[in-house]
């Protein structure tokens, strides 16, 4: 049966950056994200005993076996779990710049898990879908839900899944995604998080995780934009500090990334409240309120050359189309 699912990306405000089990993608820490309305993936899954091979079509282009490997391995893993073994076709359209720190894998694997389950007529709860999405990519665990989402780290495959914190937040919060460089990143998330664990700052960071999650959940329920912004920026800086202090130090930052960080700091000094967060790439995302949005956009355009700005806010959870 042919089924299509749409999933939106999410941006982690409290970061996931380390695996307890790399095959199961269970994390070393809980994380908390905001699902975004502006970026999403539509995926159609079809399986049929008459198909003679597995096919993966991305943005209208049939992918080579090499480029399809991660996706095929993932589907074979799911098929093994549920006892299926027929061939399949996956057609995916990404409305997210691939591999540039805007987690396209989050929307991709969330949409894929959901279309897979629907195509095989598996009657799975969102909790089960969240666990399946996790097996494809950690951040996909959270894209099953909309709004604010917590991925509870759990301690095994059964207990590591996302829960919705507030799917329709009544909060004035916009995210400006600054696409400073959409080239493919050099160090994958999987590789980066392994290296980061060699930092002397890594363990102290993990120890603070429970408290950081509790604090941001409190800030969300208090609708406290300042606190949400401060905690988000801190978590991003903790992650990037671990990268810079790893045994083999590395950074995702590019010159334009630093310019954007400085701009946010300058704007704050001028009383224009905004905060940044950065993932495994050079792009910077700015958190702000509606009141300051226009002014921040024009300051970004003045300061950074060739920057593309996409405005986002809260997006919905995964849906079948
Ligand atoms: C920095 O989910 O892409 O965006 O589990 O290896 O697929 P894998 O990693 P991925 O890592 C995302 C890391 C992050 C932070 C986050 O989204 O929490």
The number of distinct structural domains comes to 2
Helical content (DSSP H or I, runs of 4+)? 25-40%
List of distinct ligands in this structure: ligand DP6
Structural class, by secondary structure, is alpha+beta
Point out poorly predicted stretches.
Answer: none
| Spatial separation of the terminal alpha carbons | 14 Å
Main traits of this protein?
four-stranded antiparallel β-sheet, 321 residues, binds ligand DP6
Structure notes:
The chain is an alpha+beta fold and 321 residues long. It folds into 2 domains: 1-168, Ribosomal Protein S5, domain 2, CATH 3.30.230.10; 172-310, GHMP kinase, C-terminal domain (Alpha-Beta Plaits), CATH 3.30.70.890. It is built from 8 helices and 14 strands. The strands form 3 sheets. Strands 1, 4, 5, 6, 7, 8, 9 and 14 form an 8-stranded mixed sheet that branches. A hairpin with an 8-residue loop joins strand 8 and strand 9. The longest helix is centred in the middle third of the chain and has 20 residues, at 202-221. The mean pLDDT is 95. The site of ligand DP6 has 15 residues, from helix 4. Residues 12, 15-17, 25, 31, 103, 105, 137-139, 189-190, 279-280 line the site of ligand DP6.
């Amino acid at each position: 049966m042919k089924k299509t699912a749409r999933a939106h990306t999410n941006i982690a405000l409290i970061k996931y950056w380390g695996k307890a089990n790399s095959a199961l993608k269970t994390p070393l820490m809980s994380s908390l994200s905001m699902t975004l309305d502006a970026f999403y993936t539509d995926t159609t899954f079809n399986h049929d005993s008459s198909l003679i091979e597995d096919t993966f079509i991305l943005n209208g282009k049939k992918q080579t076996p090499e480029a399809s490997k991660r996706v095929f391995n993932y589907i074979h893993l799911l098929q093994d779990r549920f006892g299926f073994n027929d061939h399949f076709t996956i057609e995916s359209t990404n409305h997210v710049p691939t591999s540039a720190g805007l987690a396209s894998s989050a929307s991709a694997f969330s949409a894929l898990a959901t279309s897979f389950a629907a195509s095989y007529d598996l009657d799975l709860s969102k909790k089960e879908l969240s666990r399946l999405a996790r097996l494809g990519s950690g951040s996909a665990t959270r894209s099953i839900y909309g709004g604010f989402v917590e991925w509870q780290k759990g301690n095994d495959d059964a207990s590591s899944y996302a829960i919705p914190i507030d799917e329709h937040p009544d909060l004035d919060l916009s995210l400006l995604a600054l696409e400073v460089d959409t080239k493919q990143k050099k160090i994958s998330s999987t590789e980066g998080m392994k290296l980061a664990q060699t930092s002397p700052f890594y363990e102290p960071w993990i120890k603070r995780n429970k408290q950081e999650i509790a604090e941001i959940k409190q800030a969300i329920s208090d609708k406290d934009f300042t606190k949400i912004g401060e905690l988000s920026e801190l978590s991003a800086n903790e992650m990037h500090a671990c990268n810079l202090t790893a045994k083999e130090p590395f950074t995702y930052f590019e010159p334009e990334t630093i310019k954007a960080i400085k701009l946010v700091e300058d704007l704050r000094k001028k009383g224009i409240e905004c905060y940044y967060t950065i993932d495994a790439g050079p792009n910077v995302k700015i958190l702000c309120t509606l009141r300051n949005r226009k002014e921040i956009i024009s300051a970004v355009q003045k300061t950074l050359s060739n920057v593309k700005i996409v405005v986002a806010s809260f997006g919905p959870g995964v849906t079948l189309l």
